[in-house]
Write a structure and sequence with these properties.
This protein has 9 helices and 11 strands. By secondary structure, it is α/β, with parallel strands linked by helices. Strands 2-1-3-4-5-6 form a 6-stranded mixed beta sheet, sandwiched between helices. A 5-stranded mixed beta sheet has the order 8-7-9-10-11, with helices on both faces.
């Protein structure tokens, strides 16, 4: 039986097991050494702003070791650097990387499907042109904050075609490079030659590291084309996740992830609750319950972890109150859990009631 059809307590147990296995794989000695080797060869720090859709797994799509690419996920892929918390989180991330001597490549992504428009981003009502316009606006905001000369931070608009997991890179002058159109054996030197005209001001090392991402994507797309993929997947989300620290949740139509960035969190929580209620009403998931999970990451034990606990509990209480107020018929079927994510081990700790 698919996990979507199991009783809610079994689904929650399954989730805990997924989180444990993800942390164990991340902490494996071979995985740790692979990350160190990768960073030594490719020193550019890479961040991705993306939709919560579990299909958009950039590390998998570029054959990059887990833990290298820093994700920022939000329902619908909406971001605004005017939001106070988002601006603070991004600036903290960038400053940390710069202090370590790294430049930052920031991918601002939208996603779509060539095979069926209704497999594109529901957050933009399946209108890809609107999604592109939005991420172009986010790029302009990043340039306003971190500079337009791109000496330290390079924002890059990147499409993600979900049928084949292919990247579409948008150049500085409006040109695009659709990696799905290139032969799988295109070498990195040729990729660098194709990328240079698109990004003429990109530092040489960053360009080489972008070419590695592109080469990894070509390899992945070739593998996808020899795989029988299930593309027509129904929306069967049974979780609402609020906060950060959900990297282990990379599966399609499993969770609705709401980053703690917007000053108006009630609106996306209300929309997510409506999706869960619709999934139950249509029989796509059992109507015995859904999970509301709040999480916050921490880097150091002590005060940093304690503050993460308080943040997760606040987010859980806030989201639960919105569900009770706006969706009273759904609220009795809500199970609320909180946790904190150990950033060093990627372990979800202390999962319990708020």
């Amino acid at each position: 039986m698919s996990v979507h059809g199991k009783p809610i307590l079994d689904r929650i147990d399954w989730l805990h097991d997924v989180a444990r296995r993800y942390s164990a794989a991340y902490c494996d000695p071979e995985a740790c050494l692979a990350r160190e080797l990768h960073r030594a060869r490719h020193p550019t720090a890479i961040a991705v702003l993306k939709c919560m859709d579990g299909r958009i797994n950039i590390p998998i799509a570029t054959n990059t070791p887990p833990g290298i690419i820093q994700p920022f996920r939000n329902l619908g892929g909406f971001f605004d650097l005017g939001w106070p918390h988002l601006g603070e989180v991004l600036e903290h991330y960038v400053r940390g990387r710069l202090q370590g001597g790294q430049r930052v490549l920031m991918l601002i992504t939208y996603h779509f499907s060539r095979g069926d428009a209704h497999r594109s981003c529901a957050g933009f009502a399946y209108r890809t042109a609107d999604a592109v316009a939005h991420v172009q606006g986010v790029k302009a905001q990043l340039e306003h904050v971190f500079g337009r000369r791109h000496g330290s931070v390079y924002p890059l608009v990147c499409g993600f075609e979900t049928d084949e997991d292919a990247l579409i890179l948008h150049g500085a002058g409006g040109e695009t490079l659709d990696l799905s159109t290139l032969p799988a054996d295109t070498g990195r030197s040729e990729l660098s030659a194709r990328l240079r005209p698109l990004f003429p001001d990109m530092p040489q090392q960053m360009l080489a590291d972008l070419a590695r991402l592109a080469a990894g994507n070509l390899e992945h797309v070739a593998e996808v084309r020899h795989t029988d993929r299930q593309l027509d997947i129904e929306h069967r989300e049974w979780m609402i996740c609020v906060g950060r620290g959900f990297d282990f949740l990379h599966a399609p139509n499993l969770a609705l992830i709401i980053g703690p960035y917007s000053p108006d969190l009630a609106d996306p929580i209300r929309k997510a609750g409506g999706i869960i209620a619709a999934n139950m009403a249509s029989g796509r998931i059992p109507d015995d319950g859904f999970l509301l999970l709040a999480s916050s990451p921490y880097e150091e034990i002590g005060a940093d972890r304690a503050r993460a606990e308080l943040k997760a509990r606040f987010l859980a209480r806030f989201a639960a109150d919105v569900i009770r107020r706006e969706l009273p018929d759904l609220a009795p079927r809500m199970t609320v859990r909180t946790g904190v994510l150990n950033w060093a081990t990627r372990a979800l700790e202390g999962v319990g009631e708020p």
